[in-house]
Amino acid sequence: MKLRRTLLALALPVLMSAPALADAYTVTVFQCVNKNNKQVRVTYVDGQYRYAFGKIDDIPDIEIVRSPQQLTQNLLKTQAADTDTGHAQIMELDFKNGTYVYTVHSDYLGTKRAGGVDVYNKGKSIASIDCLPNTIVDNLSEHIYDLPERPY
Description:
Order of helices and strands: HEEEEEEEEEE
Number of helices: 1
Number of domains: 1
Radius of gyration: 20 Å
Structural class: mainly beta
Number of strands: 10
Oligomer: single chain
Helix content: 10-25%
CATH class: Mainly Beta
CATH topology: Lipocalin
Strand content: over 45%
CATH architecture: Beta Barrel
Shape: globular
Distance between the termini: 66 Å
């Protein structure tokens, strides 16, 4: 009986901490760096998507946290593209913040890669940040299908 209590006392804290560890796990959804050494980063943590832009290893210039239901996505695939292979796929993830929309995009243009973020205010394009192709970490395809589609 004493052994059972001891084992339970040892095992209980471990079992109780497992959900907390699972909730704190951070997944990189998309990440890249532009020519000015600023990073675009989308992570998924605690059931929320986080968009951040700013200098690497510094406090972000902007950070937006949204639930999956607050995001929209757009996916474009074509086999008649003007690329070296004729194929193209563009995935977009929209973070709305007031009248602004930050559209993170990952582009597979034949054998070429591109990505970045486009910023819109009241539907008008106001900025476009292109990333260096060799810095792109893209896991959007693992998340985009579960998010609401962008209305047209």
